[in-house]
Amino acid sequence: MPTTSITLHQDLRDEYTHLFNTCAPNPDHLTAVNRLVDRILSQKEQYESASGATSVPWQVIAVIHAMESSLRFDRHLHNGDPLHAKTTHVPANRPPGNPPFTWLESAVDALRFDGMTGWSDWSLPGTLFKLESYNGWGYRQFHPDVLSPYLWSFSNHYTKGKYAADGRFDPELISGQCGAATLLKVLEQRGNVMFVEETPTAGPEAAGAPPYPGRLIRQGEEDSRPVQLIQRRLNALGCAHPPLTVDGDFGSKTEAAVRLFQARSQDGDGESLLIDGIVGSLTWEALFGAASLPRVRVRPSEVPLLAKLLEIARKEIGVLEDPPGSNRGARVEEYLASTGLAGGYPWCAAFVYWCFAQAARELGADNPCINTAGVLDHWNRAGQAGIRRITHAQAEADPLLIQPGMIFILDTGDPGGAGHTGLVERVEGGKLVTIEGNTNQAGGREGIGVFRRDRRKINGINKGFIDYSRGMHRG
């Protein structure tokens, strides 16, 4: 398909945002679109595995899979050719190596081959720009009266007109395939997609602040580009003698330079970095500045129960035990009673459950939160119930996974499997603002009241996070 050089300028960003906000599946196709979305969600773990290997958002991989391979896992993501051999259609002779290929290794090659792994602006307009680029700019360049069916087919933004083959456009041909943006719109409406907030530092060259790639960078990293950025920065800061060769190979010399940088440096709050030779979000921020960490697109109001949850939790800030240190007091005993306990027990988990129960009652909704006063019991039972959990490693690698309304889980290592828990109110780069019961201003469990804390680090949540947003309808 013909292509031209097109950049993501502000007018185009505004166009994508307007089109997406006004996008609606055609009623005649709504059942088919929902079936596709159901199939995508049933295989989400496979898309998340590919995302973990490439830093391309899982939903982007999913919609490309729908467009290129009809959601078949026995086909190459490149073009739908069978996995038992290399591709024969364009791009031909992929992936490198010998067949047969797994779907994951083929998908990783396809995303790298088409430049998806080098893209960092996964905001709403950035995502739609990259998907349209993936298919080609023929519609925009030669048929501007037709919005690309690769994005908008099956929606109110597309009627007819399609390339029947490369270079051959038929104005009467109607696409019989659901567009990628239409799928993303329904995924968002069903609460399964939240786009990264746009920032002025979306591109690697903007203001000298390359964006965090969304995963831990360590020895053995296969993508040379972030490693080269790290090596150049370490050299500029005098952390290697002689200077590192900027070759994109994260070897022992690069690791040693990272360790030296970590030993010399502090995070944005003036606290020491962990000296482990691994570049996570806080080390990346220390290397390249606060603008390098993308900020979460915080829109909890779109999940009404979570918005109400945080509203209720905020009103409880300042509740204190009576007397302090007793795990008692009128309000504290209300928290405990919601889980079936009397006063005198640790109550951080009971506070979380009580807030959920109050929010559900005020909205006339079901309460999805597991009823327990045990922190690690909550974590374990959530896993058994299939409720989404984000592990410490996943959160450390990609802070954008953490959203307002999630529950953090700390394993304090005390006898009897004790822990501490609370609610995420905001996410600020690699840091959290939380609302916690049974804590104090310095943090920790067995405190004296409900406090807002702004010093917790995502990589300090040693167990993980529980996400009750899945399956909830957005407002």
Concise summary:
The protein is of the alpha+beta class and 475 residues long. Helix content is 37%, strand content 10%.
What would the keywords be for this entry?
475 residues; alpha+beta; Muramoyl-pentapeptide Carboxypeptidase, domain 1; endopeptidase fold (from Nostoc punctiforme); 3 domains; 6-stranded antiparallel β-sheet; two-stranded antiparallel sheet; 17 helices; disordered C terminus
Plain-language structure description:
The chain has about 475 residues and is of the alpha+beta class. The protein folds into three domains: about 10-190, no CATH class; about 205-290, Muramoyl-pentapeptide Carboxypeptidase, domain 1; about 300-465, endopeptidase fold (from Nostoc punctiforme) (Alpha-Beta Complex), CATH 3.90.1720. The chain is built from 17 helices and eight strands. The chain has helices spanning about 10-20, 30-40, 45-55, 60-70, 105-115, 125-135, 140, 150, 180-190, 225-235, 250-265, 280-290, 305-315, 330-335, 350-365, 375-385, 390-395; strands at about 160-165, 170, 390, 405-410, 420-430, 430-440, 450-455, 465. The chain has a six-stranded antiparallel sheet with strand order 3-8-4-5-6-7. Helix 13 packs across helix 15. Mean pLDDT is about 85; it is low at about 200-210, about 295-300 and about 470-475.
Helix content: 25-40%
Strand residues, percent: 5-15%
Largest sheet: 6 strands, antiparallel
* Integer average pLDDT: 86
Rg from alpha-carbon coordinates:
24 Å
Based on DSSP secondary structure assignment, what is the total number of beta strands? 8
Question: What's the structural domain tally?
Answer: 3
Work out the helix count.
17
Order of strands, main sheet, comes to 3-8-4-5-6-7
End-to-end separation in angstroms reads 40 Å
Tell me, briefly, the overall form: globular
Structural class comes to: alpha+beta
Query: Regions with pLDDT < 50 over 5+ consecutive residues?
Result: 199-208, 296-301, 471-475
